[in-house]
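Lab notebook, bench 4. The sequencing result for the construct came back, and we need a structural model before the next group meeting so we can plan mutations. Quick request posted to the team channel:

Model the 3D structure of this chain.
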Amino acid sequence: MTDVDSRFAAVWDDPSLSDEERLVRIDAVAVDCGDEARSAFERAGARDSAGLEAEAEPLYRRALELGLPDDLRAQAVIQLASTLRNLGRVAESLDLLRAERERGGPLHESASAFYALSLASAGDPLSAASVALDALAPHLPRYGRAVGAYARELRPAR
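Done. Here's the predicted structure in token form:
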């Protein structure tokens, strides 16, 4: 972990900060970051966390445009998609999350969780439940196979 990583983490991990204080501190660390994509990503996250989704969206897009390491890229896509859902742009959120799920990777299940939320926002609660249960099934100590089968039953016929 670099010094900048530690500094960002310290701000995010401080429960005593208000949203405004966190935003100011993230912006201060971002000035020293030296990585424009990472800076935009962290600044977007601070705004998103503070409920300023309209300000977060262009920063997420800028971070993705500039190029992030794959782990941060996946986080930025998921967070941007969540922001779009909150802004009422559910179809765009679903497109981003569908692509991220298809890509796979370590945040596949996180992408699935937000995909389920977007499906619910789109008025498709059965598909949302199916996606959520399908992501959960492998982690159940018992009944994972049964939950996975039930999740498949909830999927709409195509």
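The two ends are 46 Å apart (CA to CA).
Will bring this to the meeting.
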